[in-house]
Write a structure and sequence with these properties.
This protein is an alpha/beta fold. The chain contains 6 helices and 8 strands. An 8-stranded mixed sheet has the order 4-3-2-5-1-6-8-7. Helix 3 crosses helix 4.
């Protein structure tokens, strides 16, 4: 069975904000490699709309190799968007979900293929509550945002993970790879 992997950028104080991190060539390459290791990405509407920026890079390259390569990697991967408001995705490799997130995730995990990625904070919380996430990849940037949406602020239950790997980037960001232990203990 393939893994459901939640990959997200956060600050030291746990804020999820794509403008608070330190994106550089090394971080873009990390995410390029991650995208090529999977064959589907699950998004909520807000994050998906932010990611549509990369469509413009496809038609108007930046000239920065890693950013242009990231645009191709995100374009290539199949994207499923969960939204009650969107009527169309506007991206050839993206479709609107026709099933609830938990039904689609379970179905995808049972199919053959490469890993499944989750890139939206709201979906990460939902899948954590349903005990469906196999691996968390938290890229912690050496920044204290001071305010903003906290990644786990809506999570009420305790979930146990085991650190399986770390990756330090030259920017000072650290990617922490956590594997679910399957021993969640509920609210304490």
């Amino acid at each position: 069975m393939r893994k459901l992997i939640a990959a997200v950028n956060i600050t030291i104080d746990g804020v999820v904000d794509n403008t608070a991190g330190l994106p550089d060539e090394e971080l873009h390459q990390h995410y390029i490699d991650l995208l090529y290791s999977a064959d589907v990405m699950l998004y909520g509407r807000k994050t998906y709309e932010l990611m549509q920026y990369w469509q413009t890079v496809l038609t108007h390259p930046t000239g920065i190799r890693e950013q242009d390569d990231f645009a191709h990697a995100i374009d290539r991967i199949r994207k499923v968007v969960f939204s009650r408001h969107l009527k169309q995705t506007g991206w050839e490799t993206a479709t609107l979900a026709t099933e609830p997130p938990e039904v689609l995730a379970v179905d995808l995990k049972q199919q053959s293929g490469r890993d499944i990625l989750i890139g939206s904070p709201g979906l990460i919380i939902r899948f954590l509550q349903l005990h469906l996430i196999d691996e968390l990849q938290l890229c912690v940037h050496p920044v204290i945002a001071g305010s903003g949406r906290l990644l786990f602020e809506d999570l009420k239950d305790r979930h146990l993970f085991r650190l399986i790997k770390t990756k330090a980037l030259h920017s000072g960001a650290v990617i922490l790879y956590y594997q679910s232990t399957g021993n969640d203990e509920g609210t304490r």
